[in-house]
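DATA SHEET
Item: assembly model
Revision: 1
Owner: S.N.
Input lines:
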Amino acid sequence: MRIVAQPGASFATRDLRARPCGRIGGASGTLDPARLRAALGAGAQLVGDAMAIDADACRLDGAPVDTEAAWRAATARLASIEGAFAIAWRAADGALHLARDPIGHRSLYYALVDGELVFASRLRALVDAFDLPRRIDARSVAAFLSYAYVPGRRTMLDGVFEVLPGETLRFERGRGLTREMFWDLPAEAAHDADDAGLIAELRAELERTIADMLPAGEPVCASLSGGIDSSLVVAFARRLHAHPVRTFSITFGDAHRDELAWSSMVAAHCGTEHRVVELPAATIAAHLDDTIARMDKPNGDPLTVPNALLFREMAEHGRVALNGEGGDPCFGGPKNLPMLLAELYGDGNETDDDPRDARLRTYLRAHLKCFDEVQTMLAPEVYRAACPTPLERDLAPWFEDPRWSSFLGKLMAVNVRFKGGHHILPKVDALAAPFGVLPRSPLFAKAIVELAFRLPSRLKLRGSTEKYALKQAVADLLPAAILERPKSGMLVPVEGWFQNELLPLARERLLGGLARHGLFRADVLEQLVSGKMRGLRPRRGVKLWLLVTLESHLRALGC
Amino acid sequence: MKCIYCAHDAMYPDRAAGVCPNCKKGYAFEPRTGSAYSDMAFKSAIDAVSANGTVRFLPEHVRYELARRKRRGRGTSNTCFTFAVGSVALMLAAPLAGLVLSAVFGTIGLLAAPGARLKLDGFQADWSRWCSVHSDPPGLIKRRHTTKVAEPYRGGDEMQQYSFDRAVICDRPETVDLLLANNFHFENNCAVLSPDGYPPRAFDTVKAMLRQNPKLTVYALHDATFEGCRLAQMLASSPDWFKGRARVVEVGIRPGHTKRLRGLWTAPSSLPSEFSGITDEERKWLDANSAELFAIRPEQVIKRLFKAITSDVDALSRDADVWTDKRSLAVESQTSDGGDDAFG
């Protein structure tokens, strides 16, 4: 079945109560609860005597953690909890605690105001409820241009921070704020394990994890691109679930390349109720601001609006939506090979600096955004404020950490933490929420991530075969063509959009909106809009999308 | 003459001291005292090969760009010749007018007679002069590997587990540098080597990684020289390279492609010990000439190469061990290597 998505009601008007629990917030000192509740939306929970819990599909020792009593007991064993959670509670000594799940399925933001800790699971709600200053953090702008998201503790606002995945914050009057990792990425295991045994273990763990994520007694939705990751999730769901499995794929219209042949093949093979959602450029444009306003940190991934519109469709058919996110970072996805090439050859910069810096630059360059153009795009004074030290130096600890000895292990660690906890998982959570849909990402489950770190590199990338162990583990579940197909990625036609339908939007947002912040050089914005760009890889559409997104995000924050 | 910094147009007496009277920046060249070009003309050539600073390049590319511009100027000689012939014909009908026209165009044509060979003497001195006055231009590739011995890559043990599905093998290190400096390897998931062991840091590791891949496709990129034209055949037939291990695709310049490069040809390369992979017709041309990849702007080389490596098998023809990309590298390509954002 093919559905053409039309512009609809604003996402902000959607009823959030379809979720079993809403967002959370609170303060160590006094606060205006009505104001914070209003800012957080329906179903909000404020920490007080009771815990504030934003959680989904959490288990401890195999048993559900779904009551406050269970959560109270579980706070001493946070590292053992499987599932998505952001929680806050007051300990017996009065100290306020915040915690975020190990991988980053849920988010929490905080700031210190007049010596008190204030927090919320939505950044915009935090800023609105506590009148926080809206000062733009220049380094976050530079990071956004390079990554298309803002990794780590920083947010786009100076003085407002994100709780890291796997971290607890403890705030006590007089003693201030302390942070502690209750869970951290595991070290790379010794690589002498039996390959067949590890693949069998992976198969069993995938089956157990996906079974735990299926909603009891109701249909389940799943996004399906036709790549190995989403396909295997669908295949397991179909085998393990007694109720309908409803799959959804997207296309941008017949004029654009898509993966429908692959996704349809998987849907037919598995026997799902399959729907194709066509997303015209006009619908994308109509919901751009809506979508960006849902996200707490800016996200320049052009799939954000398509993701949101897909959740809108899914909401009509189910409450839980599975996805295949996590397969690339955890199991040796397609960005590893170019990184290996750059590791061998250097990054084309002939200066005699430390080759480790070349590796860091390459990692940023691999995002295919604007890393090499940050200096030329930003206004000189903004660049000076943003980059007193090179942006790539922030990555150095990840590549120097002795826990990961192989190059692939280092890449996996930084990808799981950055792309998982600061990009992909917050995105799907934020975009599913307005529709009452619970997104579940089994390949980013803690147990799967932990197992992935135990797999030797040769089981991730074997020769030029990516995700070798994952493919072996599900070889009997999927057509051979799916296992053998090269990774293509979902092509979002941003180049075409900005030459046609979305060009007026870009002109308005860059020259009229973004320019007033004084962050960028005016001539750069004008050149991008005019389209007069030369070179091998102008990537104008990608850059325009990035900047339109940034403008929309700053607008949503009230900057 | 215009200053490249402030665009001030100064008459000769005002610039005789070698500096712009407006901004006081120096000139590298002075046509009035024998320089072959003005600073602005030289800069224009650099801008052309670097696509206005967006593509990395080597000095040789500038040399060929200047020659190409000179050749374009000489294009008038062909036109003049045509006009001269026409004028002779006209002379029969209107003797005086025809005589004058014939003499004018004929003289211009003879003074700028078309030649097949690249002629640009003194470029190295001009280049050094430019760099000393204006400093190295942005985007210039500095060939560090030729000046010091690189240590082999140390993570070889782990790397041996992996491989790449594509490789470009170039007949000379300078072409390897061109591709690496423009991040061709990184953007296109493609190894790059030259058979003489370049680049030394990665050569052994990458070659071993490639040789274990049964799905490998190798692209031979080369000059129109004896050795260059033998490259694809050598890669496909040598047990030390990819005999029976890979599809080898010819994407370099062959004599049949050189017509568009006329005026930029160079002296013949040295004779090889064998001629396998070279036809008799090609050999005739190679006995008298050669043509270098430098004659094609870097942007075009990379775009064409991108098109070749992303083409399906329909774009290839096969002759024994070697596949050939049917499109000539010397033909301009508008293809960009992607643009849409890929996710998923």
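QC remark: Chain B has a mean pLDDT of 81.
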